[in-house]
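Recall that a protein's primary structure is simply its ordered list of amino acids. Everything else, from secondary elements to tertiary packing, is in principle encoded there. The following example makes that idea concrete.
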Amino acid sequence: MSAPVVAIIGRPNVGKSTLFNRILGERRAVTHDRPGITRDRNAVRAEWAGRSFVLVDTGGFLPASSAGRDADVRRQAEAAIGLADAVLFLVDAHTGVTDLDQAIATQLRRTHGKALLVVNKVDKPGDAIVHDFHSLGLGEPHAVAAEGGLGIGDLLDAVLALLPAEQEREAPAPRVAIIGRPNVGKSSLVNALLGEERVLVEPEPGTTVDAIDARWKTPVGEFVLVDTAGIRRQAQFDDQAEFFATMRALHALERADVACLVVDATRGFEKQEARLAHHALEAGCALLLLFNKWDQVESRESAWKAVRAELSRRFPTLADVPAHPISATEKLHLSRLPEYIAQRVAENTRQIPTRELNDWLQMVQKRRQVPSNALGKAPKIYYVTQSGKRPPTFTLFVNAPSRLSDNYRRFLWSQFADHFGFKGTPLRFRVKKSE
C-alpha cells in the first residue's frame, strides 16, 4: 500500500522549502531569498516516530491566478492538495495575516478537512503574534521556526495524528533518474510518460530546479521517475540556486537504479553528454540514452545510423550503451520505454552463479595466461565470485594481488563484458588476497 501524503502549501516566500528541508533533515529542496524559486511539486519519502509518509513541497500558491506561470503553479499546488491526506498551510509571523492568506484559508476550509495552520518564523515560544492567525478559521495555530527547528517535533506529532492508520509497507520501486543538459525535454518526457502535467515546461532552460519524484505505473511494473535540473558545465553556474540544483541532480543519480540520459537529437551527442554518462556510471546506474526531438530529424533511418557511428567514433567507451530515438511532445516510440527501462534494471540487479563465473575464468586464462612480473613470478587467480549488485560487483581472489598487472585487469574486464553481455551497466571489479 502507498504511504500517506502530506503537502506543504502557502503563499510565496513564507519558508515552505525551508520547512520541507527541516522535516527531512537534509537540504533536498532548493531554498533562496527570491520568491518563487520552488515551481514544481517536490515529493520525497519522510519519516517521523517510526511512521513514513510522502512529504510534498509546492510553489507559492496564488489562488486567484488564471494565466501564465502563476496559474501553472496554482494548478500544481491544487493537485498536491487533492492528493494529500494532510495539508500544512504555512504563514509568516513577521508579515502577519494577509489578504492572500485569507483567500487560501477560505479555499482550504471548502476543499480539505485535514489542514494544519503553521505559523513560521516565530522568534520564541509563546509569541503573541501567533494568536492573530486564529482569524483564518483553521483551528489552533502551530508555532514553528523552520530555520532553527523550533516546534518541529510537536508539529510532526500533530501530523501523524491526522494520517490514516499505518498499512503494510510496499517494496521499493526502482528509481529512474531523467538527466541531461538544460532544455533537452526532460520534463516534457516525464509529463508524457505520466500522462499529466506533473512538472512545468517552459521554452527557456532552467525551469526545473529540484529533483522531482513521481511514481509511474506501467504494464511491466512500477518505477519512480526522478526529473532533475539540467546540468551545465560548472563554469556556467550563474548563481547559488543553480549550483545547489545541480548538486541535487547529481545526488539523485546516487539514489537511482537507472539513468535515462536525454539528448537533443537536433544537436547530437557532445562532450557534456559524455560527461553526464560517466557521472551516471560512476554513481552505479545502468545507463539508457534517449535521443529526444526525433520528430524534428529528417531521413530518420540514415540519421540513426549516423548517430550510432558518430557515438562509436568519438566516444568508444559508450558505443555499446543502449540508445533509442524518441519524441516526448509527439509521444514517438514512448510505448516501449517501460520495457527498455525494466531491462536496464534487470541488468543492474543481475546475479551470475559462481560456477558460471569460474568456468569463464578458466576459459579466459587459457586464452591468455596471467603474465609474470619483472621477477618472473606470475600471480595465481584462484576463483571469482559476485559480491554485490546495483551495480554488479565481482571479486577476484588472488594469491598476490600486487603482481596482477593493470593491463591484465583491463583484459579481464573487457572479456567479462563481452562474454556476459553487460552493456551500459557499470561493473565493479575488486581484487582480494586469498587466504
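The first helix runs from residue 16 to 24. Confidence is low (pLDDT under 50) at residues 28-41, 198-211, 234-244.
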